[in-house]
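Pipeline run #58 for the internal structure catalog. This entry was flagged by the ingest filter as a single-chain record with no existing model, so it goes straight to prediction. Upstream metadata was stripped on purpose; only the residue string is passed forward. Reviewer on rotation: M.T. Logging verbosity set to normal.
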Amino acid sequence: MSEPLTRLLDLSAIHPDAVAADRDTAIRLCGQALVDVGAAAPAYVDSMLAREGSVSTYIGEGVAIPHGTAAGKDSVLRDALCVLRFPGGVDWNGHAVAVCIGIAARGDGHIGVLAQLAEILLDPDQARALREATTSEEILDLLRPTEGAPAS
């Protein structure tokens, strides 16, 4: 999964106005978005919830990156991402989350995705722009490799 993030992200898997009452609902919505684009079987959603039960996927800057357990990889049909923006925020174990980037990955593909996302999210201005983006196209643009940067 060393390809650019935008190749893994179908425009229909971006939801800039999502609403969730709590963390688990937000994770279910991410999982369902991955199912809806044909990236995962429905069982993957349970794997994402199981992962969150063992290790929080909150990474800071108002962003969580829910993904499944190693056992859940059997439910992944293809590598893909989804992005759900929660304008009202979601309580994530005491942290306010505005953006969830769901990952479906076979093998260890999620490692490359996490590295690319970390580059974006370590820049507070880019993280803020992602939290404040209001359209699917704007979110997609924010995840594109920057000019002159390797497409990793």
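catalog note: The two ends are 9 Å apart (CA to CA).
catalog note: Helices lie at 23-36, 43-54, 109-121, 124-132, 136-142.
status: ready for reviewer M.T.
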